[in-house]
Amino acid sequence: MRSFRFYTTDVFTSSRFGGNQLAVFPDATGLDPALYQKIAREFNFSETTFVLPPADPRHTRKVRIFTPGGELQFAGHPTVGTAVVLAHVGEVKTTGAETRIVLEEGVGPVPVTIRDMTPDSGFAQLSVAMLPKKGPTPPPVDKLARCLGLNPDEMHPTLPPEAWSCGTQFLHVPVKDRKALAKARPVMDAWESVLGGYDTDKVFFFCDEPELPGSHYRARMYAPAIGVPEDPATGSAVAGFGGYVGARAKQAEGLLSWRVEQGFEMGRPSLLDLEVDKKNGAITAVRVGGSAVIVSKGEFFV
């Protein structure tokens, strides 16, 4: 029997018991990859990450990301949380105000900036390896309302649903207000019939009525098909959301920024900071950042 060290962290929060839970194996060398999925199911967090030596020596580490239902090519809170854990345990040496690393993920090399490290927390910001790409035309709004247990008049009156991806595709669905956001629940027979034939059944739904000063949007995310009934914080969806809001922004040049609230309805409040760079009206970069807090450490026996 062998043991492998793991840490758990709450991501996109500065307080324990908020944000999105993540298990990180900071050195999974020698751990049978056939066990990754089983271990992710054992933790039953939204994601578990396994850190390996990089394929390219210019990069910092390779990271494989698993939900209870399968492997992801890119995800935000695992990237942020893994970076903070690697700095916390000394696998990444932090120097100066900021430390820049590159994590290899399925989508490609993901640059990450780490800062504000304390003995049990830190802040990390990822830059997407793939710029936002718009997906196919979504199902009709009334059918999407039925998937969420809402009436058509509870959907946003002017903003349309759109699919966007920075490596993992989500359907971004605007609803009318925070009341509709709180009410929404996946109706599984409608979900399967409406989204079963679509490119993605991961739904990131949002309103432009946040709760906290300094926030711009409030969101939730359902992905029942991959074992995530609701996600407290979804960095990959917020990265794609950068395409949604960035494309609509009137500003054609420079830096745009937004703060997204998520997980409040679950009792795990999360704050995700989104930045978009534009040049000549086109999106040239997307970054998602947030804090992470170390919660526990232990040994996993296999």
Task: Record the SSE blueprint.
Elements: E1 3-11, E2 20-25, H1 36-43, E3 47-52, E4 61-66, E5 71-72, H2 76-89, E6 98-105, E7 108-118, E8 121-127, E9 133-134, H3 141-147, E10 162-165, E11 169-174, H4 178-183, H5 188-195, E12 203-207, E13 217-223, E14 228-231, H6 235-248, E15 254-262, E16 270-279, E17 282-301
Parallel strand pairs: 2-3, 4-6, 11-12, 13-15
Antiparallel strand pairs: 1-2, 1-17, 3-4, 4-5, 6-7, 7-8, 8-17, 9-10, 10-11, 12-13, 13-14, 15-16, 16-17
List keywords for this structure.
alpha+beta; Diaminopimelate Epimerase, Chain A, domain 1; 19% helix; 302 residues; eight-stranded mixed barrel; globular; 2 domains
Question: Mind explaining what this structure looks like?
Answer:
It contains six helices and 17 strands. The protein is α+β, with helices and mostly antiparallel strands and 302 residues long. The protein folds into two domains: 140 residues, Diaminopimelate Epimerase, Chain A, domain 1; 154 residues, Diaminopimelate Epimerase, Chain A, domain 1 (Roll). Strand 16 and strand 17 form a beta hairpin.
